Amino acid sequence: MIKTPAEVEVMAEAGRLLASVFAHLDALPLAGMDTLQVNDLVEAFIVERLQARPASKGQYGYGFVLNSSRNAVVCHGVPSRDDVLRDGDIVNFDITLEKNGFIADSSKTYLIGEVAPPAKGLVQTTYEAMWKGIRAVRPGATLGDVGHAIEQHAKRAGYSIVRDYCGHGIGREMHEAPQVLHFGKPGTGLKLREGMVFTIEPMLNQGRRTVRTEADEWTVVTEDGKLSAQFEHTVAVTRDGFRVLTLRAEEARPTRERRRAVGGLVGR
To answer: Per-residue pLDDT tens for 5-21?
Structure first.
């Protein structure tokens, strides 16, 4: 569970490479592309350009390098030629990358073309909720503190938190201990220690939090058919706080500029 400083640095390199994958996606004209096409472009970029391994491919028998979760798909959406990105859609791309034996995991929700204000609000609040959880990370805090920060932000905005899926420890394996719930009570749960590395990846729904899995046994959708959004980062607990190992370039900007960029970074 605890990573050495040297191991964290290897994970940070994997995270830096993964951030560059999202920069590559940012430059694509996503409207009109199908999600299998996006999958294949991402695979080529990871393998050929970055000389890394797409860690999701083959994991648990999964055949693709990313999950593509569009509109009412909560998570684990399977890329397909029939799944075409159209004006007004929101879509989350969840991607993992392994380099030098360690894995990084991140996801980002994109706005495709002109998106209705309610969908934009959901995406923006989900992004903010992820950061509320990240900012609660420090030695001595608890996982309950992290989950509570996320849950309270979502509830204040009128959204529900999916409880069926959670963040997770990560390292040489994609899924390690602990489980990181996106709801909770302050002061409860595992106490955080320097060297822990895990994902924070809240999924917020416009409607009820209940979900169901479709017949392909992968794709998870909202039970009421309303929209869902997700963002994810891989985070390390440091001596005095946290380090986001998958931080993207636009997220390193000053806060006001970063807020303006969020609309752009999720909107292509």
So the answer is: 999 999 999 999 999 99
